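### Sample
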Amino acid sequence: MNSHSSKVIALSRAMPQMVEMRGRPVQSSIVRDPIPGPLEIVSDGPADNMTAVHTEHMLAFNAEHYDFWAAETGTDRQRWNWAWWGENLTITGVDEESLRVGDIVRIGTAEFRVTSPRIPCFKVAWRIDQPDTILPRMMETGKVGIHLEVLRPGEVSIDDLIEVESPNPENISLAELSRLLLSLSPDDLPSLKRALALPALGAKAAKTVRQRITLIEDRERMRIGRWRGWKPFTVTDIVEETKDIRSFFLTPQDDAPLAPPAAGQFLTVRTERDGEGELVRPWTISGIDLDARHYRLSIKEIDGGAASTRMHRHVAVGDTVMVRPPAGQFVLDRSGFRRVGLVSAGIGVTPMLPMLLAHIERGDNAPPLLWLEVVRNGASHAFRDEVARLLRQVPKLERHIFYTQPAADDRLGIDYDHAGRPTTEQVASLIGAPYPINPFGREVPMPGKETEFYICGPQAFEALTRESLSQLGVKAELIRSETFVTTTSETGEGVVPTVERSTVRFAESGVTAEWHADDGLTLLDLAEAAGLSPLYACRTGVCQSCQCPLRSGEVSYSPVPPIMPASGQVLICCARPASAEMDLAL
């Protein structure tokens, strides 16, 4: 397709620099000016061009978008010179609605392939002096920019005509894909999966599509078989893992499907015994079989532990226990690009098993995994064979198993890697080295401290590990543990207690909704279930676009957002009620 109205009207190159963005220094290449040209195109983009983070070869942006966004944001159009939106090519005549993933674009003597729409981040919002809440609107319009891959180097000049060829006209358009990345509907899963299968789709966009698929599938899975309150389960099997750890397999007594937990969640179990009354305890789900319809709880008998002793000595196959649905915020975040560090001691391995399996299910594009486990010796090493089998399925793995008191028949280098307890210096040495990641199509080194850590074990072990990681420079929001929950409140002070239910008022909408802990909903989920349509983009607390005023009440966060909101504000995409009543200005 040739069009005399399709041409280049401005050119620019990128060079990274440190920029103060809303009170914090950020390295970015979005600040640039147009150049007279011509622009020499080499194999990986414009010559002498360098981006701060992104690895896409080129960004093109439609000149007509400048007028659209100036009107949309109430900005004086004269404030924005060409290249203000961070593009290499300012073009006219073709846009995201007309271009499809895989289209071939010829400009001057160079040839490109369309790989994806730009996925805007907070840097774009900062550049045009708008709040981050504009990001979902940008994606909704599709007027975001066009990423191009260099197929043939050459030279591009101002006024060069643009020729487009569509070898696969059935491929998704860039605007449609941009809008699709806002979807939470399971009806859109086939379209997302078709887009993900396109060979021309850019690596960064593929990662974002994959995250959206995971989010939708996880949300749908959480709706299966959910119940409230107590429900009877039958103990269908008991397996002795070690001399003091037994696994109990629990199957519901009704015909409802089993509710899938998020990796790392627990079940609250109530047992009864004549003359001894009721005992209620939470135990982590160490495994689940949806086909066999059972949960596995692996319980260590603790000296003086009434509930664990009852389970070990008095509960038998065929007995009934009462169970509440899967709950808990110590769960694996499958959306990140950093290395995942699963760190456990003793029975603390139980949440790591489903987390390890969930990590494997991410496929070959999963980030690296660090497995650090501490046990006494082979005789007390629960799930040793199961863990070894799962770790063999992890392509990018660093394993460190410590035996504090190895036996004579324990094999160094096979059963375990280190003797003794890990010291602070040892932990720093083992995890401090850089590791490679390939998040957007180019392998780059990441410092060891940029790892998402999940810790479970005795209190002293958790404290030592957390202290070791903090000394290494690991940010607090990257360290999660079973007993550590970061919370916030209207005052930003104190530890907020959890609640079973909460009355949430969305004051601006005049809607009141009842929140139940058993449902596992965030405030954003609850608002959507009540028929509201709040702004959001990432649903993980990164983009900040869902922020709204918290008039009264308290919240807890999971996942913990990388930048906490100001006092009196709440990020509803990852917040849950922590008070019996709440009032949001939404």
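The first helix runs from residue 63 to 73. This sample (Nitric oxide dioxygenase) is used throughout the tutorial notebook.
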